[in-house]
Amino acid sequence: MSQVKIGDYVTGYGSGYWQLIDIKPKIATEDYVGEGIRWKKGQIIGQWAILKKCFTDKMKPRIYFSYEDIAWVKPVSDDIRKEIEKCFQDNPKHKQKFDAAEIKLRPMITNCWLDLPEEQESEFIATIQKLPAQYTMDEFWKAAKDYKKYVSNPPAKYLLNLLTYPWDMDKKANLIYSDWELTKN
Predict the structure, then answer these.
(1) Please, which of 24, 99, 148, 174 could form a disulfide with 167 given CB 3.0 to 4.6 Å?
(2) Which of 165, 20, 37 is nearest to 176 (CA)?
(3) Segments making up each domain of the chain, as ranges
(4) Exposed (0-12), middle (13-18) or buried (19+): which is 117, by Cβ within 10 Å?
(5) Would the pTM count as exceeding 0.90?
(6) Which pLDDT value is given to residue 2?
């Protein structure tokens, strides 16, 4: 599917130079038909590239993590690869930090606006704190069924963010969430 492999230095959607550190399947979370494209929920429709940034496009040391559709990822030229290797050789402290850096990816957010009465905020929080460590959207709303009536269009009193990664799914291709944030507007 891709002409890059784990360990390659690449460019991607974000600026600078990155190392491809992992590849995950990109799975459809719903059926889709449109503009000559069609897929079914659960079908593999691509790949996610997990990237670790090593240098800016001006070859300044930088460590950052990201993920994106692998279609955006291209191998660097031989000249750039040699320049990256030389920069690491000239800056062994950066190479050591780069190699030791713990992967920290920003989660994907599914948000929901709620016109929740303020006096029910603590009950709502107590309800969602009882959720298991991982849950699907259906499991979330089964636990919080009494609060679904407060779902609203923006702006609303509260914004609920459910956090996941696009490759964390159950066997039925439902996203699995592992954290949440509730903010009052």
Answers:
(1) 24
(2) 165
(3) 9-100, 108-184
(4) exposed
(5) no
(6) 60
